[in-house]
User: Fold this.
Amino acid sequence: MLEKVSKDFRETTIVDGDGYPKYKRPDNGRSVEIGGETFDNRHIVPYNRYLSLLLNAHINLEICGYIQAVKYLYKLQVHLPGFQTVAFLEGEEREALQREAEKDTTLTAWFKLNLEYERLQDGGADLQGGVDSRTLYYYQLPEHFTFVKQTRKWKIRARGTRQIGRMFVASPRDPERFSLRLLLLHRKNAHSFEHLRTVNGVVYNTFGDAARALDLLYDDAHYALCLEEAATFQVATELRALFSYMLAFCDIRDPQTLFDRFKASMAENFVHRGYSQLEGETMA
Assistant:
């Protein structure tokens, strides 16, 4: 399997800091001419002979050890009121909706956990020395609590853990969910969705209005964070599409700085195909 964009000859296989391997491509003088063009080891596409035979298809295969591609161990739900994910069998949609409506998600259970600590304190309970959920952001909860699926409640961990919480990413294409996620990143001790929309005693109609009241949508920092998180799991084409959407529909104050910060990630597929970094960034 050959490709027209060539890579460099090299005598050993190495793995760069970005996690992509650069395979051994010895300059052994062997070449083949196809359609008037000459191909050698610089043009060989990495592949796995076993998988190609098994699947009877053209399939490229490379190791990817990119540290940013490692998925976090605990994903936290981010959903609007009444918009949690529901799994169901065909024909049983109504029953599934009724069943899930009575269950808490990781998010609504967090609200109830904070309320429970409020009640404990109001009842005179001694909370000194223990972990208080009200002092934690939503994404910090898995470090000290575990979500019990049977009871749909958060339970304090018996011992410490290195488990990291990660909220599901919300795209600016969904502005209300995007704003809800921003609020969850910056507010502790929330008791309900309405509580999250309350700023300085004023209950705002939307999460976007509440985020603006807290100046969370004032600069490009939240868009940079969105791109940073997206870069950990989206391919370069998807990242470019997301950035294009931001340019078209969001209030980006300094698009050049934002592009310069993420242009390397946006150009990854071009560089991976053999183009130089500058060529890849220009194409991106």
Summary: The chain has three domains: 1-69, 74-209, 219-284. DSSP finds eleven helices and ten strands in the chain.
